[in-house]
């Protein structure tokens, strides 16, 4: 039946007004009774069969308007249930099924995690619970009765508000009835039953309503749920202030579970989270963990409006909720923390994941137009590039008109399932502007490349910028049209100050944003003295690659003076990247790497600038990753040479900057108890970058410093940073610290994940055997996605030299794991298989080995649809 195409979209034949579920939980025989009020869709073509989706379930009984149906009156298949001749008008359909949550290793539908019951229905999990038109444009009002053994599941949670609860007379069982008055698609359905402890609070909304908040965790871990609860309160307040969005139910619950396919899920009134994004204490969570928790809590909460109240018409519109909600959570984190540092971090993620995706065989538009397996489209392109597209709308329209567009979207589409066209139309209308060319951002895959050429006319006092845009071909899209690109520009005058931006013949450039619309165009800027340096794409106003004719002197000038913190950081990154790429070539040719005193000097100047926040300086000091360098090189990639070039630069920085780094390291020492706030985290970040660079040359004194920090740390950030530094040096201190870490935290699987991940990332040839050994460790389990991602995911995605071993053994390990995992959890197996997405960019030996790995997967009988889809597209 697959592939599914956007162009084939048809409105549903039948609508569901209400869903009444009665779910009696049992470890292996959970009984599900569903009662659907169906009516023909007036928008559909005419009388039609009722076709319900199902996956791995069989009907025990089917009734129409209370009358049992003969088995011959409906057709049950592995994919669902069809009633060929339903009543002509509205009717009530009742279906009974029985499911086995304990046998559910796919973690989609109803399953058990640490003995607790929980659900995951996005994208197509509800059909594993009961038969239903499992598509987001069928929105219904749900009432759910949950029944369970009181001992086994004292806590019973559902969507909406709790309307009834009690004991089942004469039994050990009890029940709870939840009613959600807001129509929703079935992917937002959820229930939880188990032995859970909670942290609770109340929140008073902007209109004065009281909402009961609860964060439920494994009993005994309530202490670690406090930060998540506070983050939830901050998110709720922020959405009122920034977007005027108020929460709408009497209750908002969050539940943390240990076995979860992704980060978290925005089920209406009952978010379910991977416990990794809830549980935090200074001893067990790093500053980065705290920041992620805050961001994910916010993201899922913000879905209440962008995703739940207004949902997607179909899964092709996924970016409508995900891109927009990522944009909203990024804005929230920027307001809670440092805006420039958040922007830099987000762009690092975008380039590290989305640009890589865009450059390989898995590239797809922000709104794909075809898919075989929707679970494979929860990608960096849909999420991160989707957020950039929303950000560009704001940049193009300005804050006020953008907000007016959002307001219109909220009022016009509340309670509906919408499309990208309808979303963009709100901005076009609110701003009185034509956004038809802008729609190409949703339709065309690939990262635009801008070539920028400067022409100075000293006499006329003008600077001309000739800008050409090219969008490279991507799978299924050999040629492209020019895009609308908002390019925020600065002109840094010879004295280092910003100059006004005026276009000859046009006057001042609104908000300093040049709007590119053609394949090639020239912007003549006036009032520009000689020695002015353009600062292009300030704040990363568009998700593009820029190839500008800026010299190293220009970049050093920007690194010292640019008033735009993003571009100041970018200038240093570009300088580093150019040096590293040059040295990679030198290494491959057997030569000696070039030491660049100018680059060291530029970094020293940033280090010496006391006006800069430590968190920002930490970002400047973090040179491009191996992945960044590989991506910038783009073809014939040799990961070993990249590693060596990067190591050489890190050593040079560690040696040349040692005195300054050492002074900073001491000055930034923590002077009170640990606090996860952004300023304290920034100081730790910079201190730990200093430590890592100091240790890079491998001097025993620096290794001892790291070992001392490891054992003296009173928080996980400092302990983990020291361990990560030690992990890069093959010393007795490394093995001692790793052994100590395991003993300290062996009872805490989330912390042991850090231990798995760190070892998987060690760039030594011995890592392959180490990872094989760890995969057999009692703390490892293929059944738990966090364990798999920590050990095998980190090896495949973050250990460039060892995953890409020239002998192909790294690929073999990952292929073996994908195959073993596919029968357990195909969604997670498919995600792991995407590690091969850049195989074509490798040098010939590794390319051949990676291809052989993919072909081994392709040649395996009975691959899941999830893995088969990734493998076929990767080879395609
Ligand atoms: N909307 C959710 C995406 C999702 C998911 C979450 C958990 C398990 C499986 C899932 N499939 C899709 C999470 C989000 O982006 O907010
Ligand atoms: Zn989301």
TrEMBL record:
Ranges of residues in domain Aminopeptidase N-like N-terminal: 93-188
Record-level Gene Ontology MF annotations: alanyl aminopeptidase activity; metallopeptidase activity; zinc ion binding
Organism in which the protein naturally occurs: Rhodoplanes serenus
Listed Pfam families: DUF3458, DUF3458_C, Peptidase_M1, Peptidase_M1_N
Domain Peptidase M1 alanyl aminopeptidase Ig-like fold: 446-548
Listed cofactors: Zn(2+)
GN (gene name): pepN
Protein name according to UniProt: Aminopeptidase N
Entry's EC annotation: 3.4.11.2
Reaction catalysed by this enzyme: Release of an N-terminal amino acid, Xaa-|-Yaa- from a peptide, amide or arylamide. Xaa is preferably Ala, but may be most amino acids including Pro (slow action). When a terminal hydrophobic residue is followed by a prolyl residue, the two may be released as an intact Xaa-Pro dipeptide
Domain Peptidase M1 alanyl aminopeptidase C-terminal: 553-875
């Amino acid at each position: 039946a697959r592939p599914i195409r956007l162009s084939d979209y048809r409105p549903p034949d039948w609508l569901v007004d209400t869903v009444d579920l009665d779910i009696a939980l049992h470890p292996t025989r959970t009984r599900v009774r569903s009662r659907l009020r169906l009516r023909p869709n007036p928008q559909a073509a005419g009388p039609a069969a009722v076709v319900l989706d199902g996956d791995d379930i069989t009907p025990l009984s089917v009734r129409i308007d209370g009358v049992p149906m003969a088995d011959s009156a409906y057709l049950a298949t592995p994919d669902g249930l069809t009633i060929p001749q339903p009543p002509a008008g509205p009717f009530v359909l009742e279906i009974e099924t029985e499911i086995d949550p304990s046998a559910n290793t796919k973690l989609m539908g109803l399953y058990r995690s640490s003995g607790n019951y929980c659900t995951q229905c996005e994208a197509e999990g509800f059909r594993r619970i009961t038969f239903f038109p499992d598509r987001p444009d069928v929105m219904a009002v749900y009432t759910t009765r949950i029944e369970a053994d009181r001992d086994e599941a004292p806590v019973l949670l559902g969507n909406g508000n709790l309307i009834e609860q009690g004991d089942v007379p004469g039994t050990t069982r009890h029940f709870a009835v939840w009613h959600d008055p807001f129509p929703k698609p079935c992917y937002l359905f959820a229930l939880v039953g188990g032995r859970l402890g909670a942290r609770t609070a109340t929140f008073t909304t902007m209109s004065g309503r009281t909402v009961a908040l609860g964060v439920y965790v494994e009993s005994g871990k309530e202490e670690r749920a406090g930060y998540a609860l506070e983050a939830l309160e901050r998110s709720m307040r922020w959405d009122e202030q920034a977007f005027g969005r108020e929460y709408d139910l009497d209750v908002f619950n969050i539940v943390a579970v240990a076995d979860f396919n992704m980060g978290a899920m925005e089920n209406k009134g009952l978010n379910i989270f991977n416990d990794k994004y809830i549980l935090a204490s200074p001893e067990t969570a790093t500053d980065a963990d705290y920041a992620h928790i805050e961001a994910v809590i916010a993201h899922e909460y913000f879905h209440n409006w962008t995703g739940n109240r207004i949902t997607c018409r179909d899964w092709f519109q996924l970016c409508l909720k995900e891109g927009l909600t990522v944009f909203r959570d990024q804005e929230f984190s920027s307001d809670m923390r440092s805006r420039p540092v958040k922007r830099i971090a987000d762009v690092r993620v975008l380039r590290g994941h989305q640009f890589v995706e865009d450059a390989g065989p898995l590239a797809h538009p922000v709104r794909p137009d075809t898919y075989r397996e929707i679970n494979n489209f929860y990608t960096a392109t849909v999420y991160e590039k989707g957020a950039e597209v929303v950000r560009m709308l704001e940049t193009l329209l300005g804050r006020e008109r953008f907000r007016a567009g959002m307001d219109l979207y909220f009022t016009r589409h509340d309670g509906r399932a919408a499309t990208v066209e309808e979303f963009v139309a709100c901005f076009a209308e609110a701003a009185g502007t034509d956004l038809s060319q802008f729609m190409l951002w949703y339709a065309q895959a690939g990262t635009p490349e801008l070539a920028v050429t400067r022409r100075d006319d000293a006499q006329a006092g003008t600077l001309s910028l000739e800008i050409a845009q090219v969008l490279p071909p991507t799978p299924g899209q050999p040629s492209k049209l020019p895009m609308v690109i908002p390019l925020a520009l600065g002109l840094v005058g010879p004295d280092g100050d910003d100059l006004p931006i005026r276009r000859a013949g046009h006057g001042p450039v609104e908000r300093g944003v040049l709007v590119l619309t053609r394949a090639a165009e020239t912007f003549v800027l006036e009032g520009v003295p000689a020695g002015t340096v353009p600062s292009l794409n300030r704040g990363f106003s568009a998700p593009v690659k820029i190839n500008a004719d800026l010299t190293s002197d220009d970049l050093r000038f920007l690194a010292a003076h640019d008033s735009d913190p993003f571009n100041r950081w970018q200038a240093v990154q570009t300088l580093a990247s150019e040096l590293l790429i040059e040295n990679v070539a030198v290494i491959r040719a057997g030569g000696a790497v070039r030491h660049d005193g100018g680059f060291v000097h530029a970094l020293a100047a940033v280090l010496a600038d006391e006006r800069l926040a430590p968190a920002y300086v930490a970002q400047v000091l973090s040179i491009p990753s191996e992945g960044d360098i590989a991506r910038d090189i783009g073809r014939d990639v040799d990961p070993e040479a990249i590693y060596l070039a990067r190591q050489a630069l890190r050593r040079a920085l560690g040696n040349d900057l040692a005195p300054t780094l050492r002074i900073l390291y001491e000055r930034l020492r923590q002077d009170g108890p640990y606090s996860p706030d952004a300023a304290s985290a920034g100081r730790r970040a910079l201190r730990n970058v200093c430590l890592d660079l100091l240790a890079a040359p491998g001097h025993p004194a620096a290794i001892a410093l790291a070992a001392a920090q490891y054992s003296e740390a009173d928080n996980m950030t400092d302990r983990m940073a020291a361990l990560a530094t030690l992990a890069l040096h093959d010393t007795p201190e490394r093995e001692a610290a790793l052994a100590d870490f395991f003993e300290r935290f062996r009872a805490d699987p989330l912390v042991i994940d850090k231990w798995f991940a760190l070892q998987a990332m060690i760039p030594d040839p011995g890592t392959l055997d180490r990872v094989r050994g760890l995969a057999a460790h009692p703390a490892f389990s293929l059944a738990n996605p966090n364990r798999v991602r920590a050990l095998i995911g980190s090896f495949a995605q973050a250990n460039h030299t060892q995953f890409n071993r020239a002998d192909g053994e790294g690929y073999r390990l990952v292929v073996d794991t994908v195959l073993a995992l596919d029968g357990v959890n195909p969604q997670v197996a498919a995600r792991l298989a995407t590690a091969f997405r850049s195989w074509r960019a490798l040098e010939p030996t590794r390319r051949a080995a990676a291809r052989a790995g993919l072909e081994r997967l392709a040649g395996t009988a009975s691959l899941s649809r999830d893995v088969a889809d990734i493998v076929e597209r990767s080879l395609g």
